[in-house]
Amino acid sequence: MNTPICDFIDGYRAAKKVRLHMPGHKGKGAYSRDITEISGADVLYSPRGIILDSERNAAALFNAARTVYSTEGSSLCIRAMVRLCVLYAKKRGKNPLIVAGANAHRTFLSALAFSDAKCEWIRSDSLLSCPISASEAKAAIEKYDPVALYVTSPDYLGNRLDIGALSQVCHENGVLLIVDNAHGAYLKFVGKEHPIDLGADMCCDSAHKTLPSLTGGAYLHISAAAPEEFCEWADDAMAVFASTSPSYLTLYSLDKTNAFLAQNGAKKAEIVAKRVQKLKKSLQKLGFTVLCGEPFKLTVLPKSYGYEGGELAAILSESGVVCEFYDPDHVVMMFSFSSSLADFTATENAFAAVVRRFPITSAPPAIVAAKRVMTVREAMNLPFETVPTDRAKGRILASSSVSCPPAVPILICGEEIDDGAVEAFKYYGIQEVKVVAECDEKEKI
Ligand SMILES: Cc1ncc(COP(=O)(O)O)c(C=O)c1O
Prior knowledge:
The chain has 445 residues and is of the alpha/beta class. The chain has three domains: 4-260, Type I PLP-dependent aspartate aminotransferase-like (Major domain) (Aspartate Aminotransferase, domain 2); 265-352, Aspartate Aminotransferase, domain 1; 376-436, Molybdopterin biosynthesis moea protein, domain 2, CATH 3.90.105. It is built from 14 helices and 13 strands. Strands 1-7-6-5-4-2-3 form a seven-stranded mixed sheet, sandwiched between helices. The protein has a four-stranded antiparallel sheet with strand order 8-9-11-10, covered by helices on one side. Strands 12-13 form a two-stranded antiparallel ribbon. α7 links the parallel β5 (176-180) and β6 (202-206). The structure holds pyridoxal-5'-phosphate.
């Protein structure tokens, strides 16, 4: 597979021209491959040259009708996907209503705040997972008559939904299926479990999370089965929210990733997946409870070994192993094509050195749906104030108040904070929350 972006940038770097264009570092030192949209370098969201060629390579790899690059992560792609749903609905005179799993990344909420999309939620009692079955999806579709179903799969813990079954239900009912596949780009190369192959109309993949790409590198994939205007609209949908200064270092890495995947993807993925599987078995033998979800992800439930997630992550870190994420009930580790055999050995040794203690039996608070007072868009577009969690009861949540990772909202913006929500905020270490500011009747617009 050719690498048109890398070739252009490497050629420009070698030519040592006087750079009277941005960026201000002028390509000196380590930044020599960092350029801007100069002549010949194409334009990210009106691509006609090297970027379009490279995106076509990516589309061919992922079996997509169109793949558009992001240098601002899946976050940008999520906003674009919601915008595409709104345009699609309006073109057909439909209500731009999306049904979404409540474990959506907080960017989905900002997409709702920036668009005319409405949302109804499918809840689960766990914060990070929302195991939506085909029958639940069908019931929600019959109840709400949405234009799209929006799901997160894999979720932060590595749980996956049956995208094939969801896509069947959606398409039988004339509903689009949109998948946040931020964690699952590599699934294309392990067991062919990528959402585009399983029937999703579009999905976002964070290349930077699981492929050898720089931070920010991501794809918006449009399926051949999606409404045909999506391919035409996709660039514009991204451009509406994107910076006009894309990172060419990130584009370079996406281009290079194509060549890597074309040559090594399936072969290397199998090796990594086998190593992760072996590691999971070894940790289970040591007595750890391991979630067996995604092939490249290792999620350990630390309490059964006598630790909260933060304690276990700190011990592993002292042994030189740094985790992706932890909360009291989980420690999440991510492997990738770039993980070496030594990384697996070090991880196993770090776990083997942890002294087993009596199990901790406390459970996380169940996440219960709260009373909706206003829409996400209304709540996120009102002045807010920050209050200590202890004094937040009865107030309306204005902003998702959760940092990344995992950036999954405990309560949806626009909902009233009740005792259950206060308890959940405190359990997840959230000391203060942003609530809709109280204002005078006279001040209301
Ligand atoms: C499930 C999920 N979706 C979307 C995102 C946003 O992805 P990005 O960081 O590539 O913008 C994240 C980030 O962690 C995520 O976990």
